[in-house]
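Issue 218. Parser rejects a valid record. Input:
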Amino acid sequence: MQCLEASDILPHDPDGYLKRLQEQVGTALDDTVLIYVQESLLTFLAGRYLAATVMLGVASERCVDLLIENYLSAIADPNRKATFERKVRRAGRSVKRRFDALRDELLTLSLPSELADALDIQLSGIFTLIRYSRNDAGHPTGRVVGRDVAYGNLLLFPQYCTRVYGLIEYFKTNSV
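Output the parser choked on:
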């Protein structure tokens, strides 16, 4: 009851969660991200923590791909852009390698303080937690994902998503 009164983002209220996520991000969320976050919330409520974790991992991966696209568009130097494009292509389907290439680039930029502060922790840390959980759930390892892990990921996702979209908006209006 205290969480509801405080208007926190809660996985137990999918509509409220999505509404608050949209408000917190402050810009229109990608339809694919929304679909997978909603699916994650609904499967979480059904007690399907494995599926909820996989769905949230897909939403996270889509966020990374959107951020890469927008960062590429913002790169002014053609040589730097070509170098980064090669790194992303070489990473192939591995979201970790694509993310690592992006993170390495982002950490070299002079970003506004609201985007730069704790960037590696808020972006890399949460991305890694979600990715590890998804790997445990999305590969035939036989590992079980518990409620606490799925719940924790859903609680962290809005902060991660807000940072990703803050960077996307920055790259839409600024060259790097």
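Fixed in the parser; the record now loads. DSSP finds nine helices and no strands in the chain.
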